[in-house]
From TrEMBL:
Known cofactor(s): heme b
Catalytic activity as recorded in UniProt: heme b + 2 H(+) = protoporphyrin IX + Fe(2+)
Enzyme Commission numbers on file: 1.11.1.-
Species of origin: Lysinibacillus xylanilyticus
Task of the protein: Involved in the recovery of exogenous heme iron. Extracts iron from heme while preserving the protoporphyrin ring intact.
Name by which UniProt lists this protein: Deferrochelatase
Cofactor binding, per record: Binds 1 heme b (iron(II)-protoporphyrin IX) group non-covalently per subunit.
Keyword Transmembrane helix: yes
Transmembrane segments: 20-41
Family from the record: Belongs to the DyP-type peroxidase family.
Primary location class: other
Length: 417
């Protein structure tokens, strides 16, 4: 490039789409930009149509193939990188191509392998961005889902399950559009933050020019030495009241009809936690907020974390043992059940207040998002925890059923077209 060309290049207004092509695949990307996703992937060296098997030798490996996608009932890992994407195309064929081509790449990532084998050609961008080299599979799980907006964009509303719709507005919501909605989600969870990030980065890069990141959130869970329930940033054990038995998971989590059979609905809520206010609250009031003891995690009136309790039980004064404004009382009383799989986040400070920008990337799985809505409505304006939280973001996605070898992510949707 001559000096004057350089100047022209610098001054040229670069669209976000151009930027994606440039940052994703460099000069090679510009040359092949028009040839579609398959072309881009091939040019990057991805063996796109070659099925890949789950490794039998990889360390700390979660299997990709199975009845259900990983990352739903998979034991919770220490880190998440959650990305909500928008598609930049409007054809069903391109969507199908995207999922066909992502499938073997997801398997490779979950095997702890590079996206492509290393190249010796230093004149082209590498097929894998490289930051996971030397790290093991780290129990990486990748969960992919589609949002209600995707069906509108592609003109396939007739295939949108009736349950898949934006959540209603809840009274205390202060949602920001920069953390809300999306056409596709990638939930990458791993026991190493870099492995989770690498997975999302490389899948998005492989689909350069076809998808863009609308919003994303990193999160973490820390497990006590010797195992057990992780504590959230309010220091309470979080996840105790989850369903675990197979029969409960069938009742609560897995869709049992239509093309989504074997899949599940993911609800994501970015909930800011006002740590400064919480930290000025007495331990007694903190415990009354949840109706559980902070140290043991036991419900009020009981000794151990997993002890059963009756929300209606009263003491000799006729007072509820578990206060009727407590989070757990209200959640349990709703009668609806969900599988929570949340992660804490700490993302710097709120520039307007100087407060921590921290909270919970709340994620739940259920066979119908209405289960979440029922619980949230029960928490409503009564939940004592409302004093300490603000809901900032929201999204809902239909996560595909699991994939059998030889098939690809979302095949049942395309068979239904
Ligand atoms: C609408 C669903 C829920 C939202 C949103 C939510 C946010 C949220 N929760 C905590 C902390 C805890 N939640 C706990 C229990 C609990 N929470 C929900 C639902 C939502 N929580 C349910 C269904 C339950 C289980 C109730 C039961 O039947 O036992 C607990 C107690 C321990 C546990 O069971 O995990 C804590 C602690 C935070 C901090 C938060 C948003 C910031
Ligand atoms: Fe909760």
């Amino acid at each position: 490039m001559t000096a004057s060309n350089d100047e022209k290049w610098i001054n040229k207004k670069i669209s976000r789409r151009d930027m994606l092509k440039l940052t994703g695949i460099g000069a090679a990307g510009v040359a092949i930009g028009a040839s579609g996703l398959g072309g881009v992937m091939k040019a990057m060296g991805y063996d796109v149509f070659e099925p890949v098997a789950d490794s039998t030798t990889a360390r700390n490996k979660v299997d990709f193939y199975g009845t259900h996608q990983s990352g739903i009932v998979t034991p919770v890992q220490t880190n998440i990188y959650f990305a909500s994407l928008d598609v930049l195309f409007t054809s069903k064929k391109e969507l199908q191509e995207l999922f066909k081509q992502w499938t073997p790449l997801v398997v490779r990532l979950m095997n702890g392998e590079l996206m492509v084998d290393l190249t010796t050609n230093t004149r082209v961008p590498t097929g894998d961005t490289g930051e996971a080299e030397g790290l093991n599979a780290s129990n990486l799980s990748i969960t992919i889902g589609v949002g209600p907006s995707l069906f509108e964009k592609l003109g396939i509303q007739h295939l949108k399950p009736a349950e898949l719709k934006d959540l209603p507005h809840f009274p205390k919501d202060q949602l920001q559009k920069e953390y809300t909605g999306g056409d596709i989600c990638i939930q990458a969870c791993a026991d190493d933050p870099q492995v989770a990030f690498h997975a999302v980065r490389n899948l998005v890069r492989a689909a350069s020019g076809k998808v863009e990141i609308k919003w994303s959130q990193a999160g973490f869970n820390s497990f006590p030495t010797g195992g057990g329930t992780p504590r959230n940033l309010f220091a309470f054990k979080d996840g105790t009241g989850n369903p675990t038995a197979e029969k409960d998971l069938n009742k609560v989590v897995w869709v049992d009809k239509g093309w989504l059979k074997g899949g599940s609905y993911l609800v994501a809520r970015k909930v800011q936690m006002h740590l400064e206010t919480w930290d000025r609250t007495s331990l007694k009031d903190q415990e009354a907020t949840f109706g559980r003891y902070r140290d043991s995690g036991a419900p009020f009136g009981k000794k151990k974390e997993f002890d059963d309790f009756d929300v209606e039980a009263k003491d000799s004064n006729g007072e509820y043992i578990m206060p009727d404004t407590s989070h757990v009382h209200l959640a349990r009383k709703s009668g609806a059940r969900i599988l929570r799989r949340s992660y804490s986040y700490a993302s710097g400070v709120m520039t307007n207040t100087g407060a921590h920008d921290a909270g919970l990337m709340f994620i739940s799985f259920q066979k119908d998002p209405a289960q979440f809505t029922t619980v949230q409505n029960s928490l409503g304006r009564m939940d004592k925890m409302n004093e300490y939280i603000t809901h900032r973001g929201s999204a809902v996605f239909a996560c595909f059923p699991g994939v059998q070898k030889g098939s690809y992510l979302g095949e049942a949707l395309f068979n239904a077209l």
